[in-house]
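Handout, page 2. Input:
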Amino acid sequence: MDLSILQQKFVSIFEKEPEASFFAPGRVNLIGEHIDYNGGLVFPCAITLGTYAAVSKRADQLFRVYSLNFESLGVIEFSLEDLTYNKSHNWCNYLKGVIKYLLEAGHSINTGLDIAVFGNIPNGSGLSSSASLEMLMCKICSTMYAFSLESMEAALLGKKVENHYIGVNSGIMDQAAIALGQKNHALLLDCNTLDYTIIPFELEGYSIVIMNTNKRRELADSKYNERRAECESALAKLQPGFDIKALCDLTEEDLEKAEVLIHHPVEFKRVRHAVTENTRVLAATKALQANDLVTFGKLLNASHISLKSDYEVTGIELDTLVAAAWEEEGALGARMTGAGFGGCAISVVANDKTTSFIENVNRKYKDAIGYEASFYIASIGNGPTQIHSL
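Output:
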């Protein structure tokens, strides 16, 4: 989309020029899946797909907001005087939640805004459009109302919006990956302690190809809860024999003894995934620090195999996409990313092979599944920013 269309739409709806424009990225988790709640590390990055906004300040306390992604909803209005959750306000509740908690944190927001937004993150893809919207609103507010907001403070506020305002039991990874995003860098994050390291990730000659199964993720929530319960059960059985607080405190050398203590084949497989995936995250960061994309690609492959065999959260759609990607020349590796059972996979692909990669993988996927996948080429981008021209 030509972003001048967003500016033109703003003018046609609000009958004035926008004062400022902003962008906040989406994110992908490169490696470290389903271990954030097991005391493990995640390794996400911000991407160049995301959410744009054109904004102008108002003299009253009214907010008027419009999305080019949900044009049938028209302009939605709310006031600083009433920031309670309203189901009919749809996507605007993310903005309202941010404003509510910024005010509760003591930041000064004394007038309303006119806002038009457009996102090029596919809905339901697992690339975190909601966190992108939250971090976008944090950036808009801190800029338009001239107050300071640290990146991790914004991330924690976004998590609070998800957990307490929207009612989704999500972690900190999405917001942190976006708020702390740096071009050509990924984020090594401990979700429990919030300790993090910014790791250089130079994709010279390569791109991240995001492959969307286009399958609705009906099973993801129920299976997520099931996996968490299995991990909690295994941890309780292990703690008498190990001085650990979380499964990822174990090492691979501990697994033999752990299998005896758990005495449950399915739960042991879950533990093995958690422990080996955490090891893969650390190995992946070392590979990137050594500029070794080949090793990084192999670790992506191993991650997918573990998620398929030990954690059992992939499904035929993701497995078909990833297997097709593995066969393609120029692809260093591929794996599912996100909750699983649909959503997206990622592959690191040579720039001169991306066209043939997409054509071949899509053909194989359609032959096997019956409908097409969608593909997006993304680079690793910066976090939320003010854009000085649309």
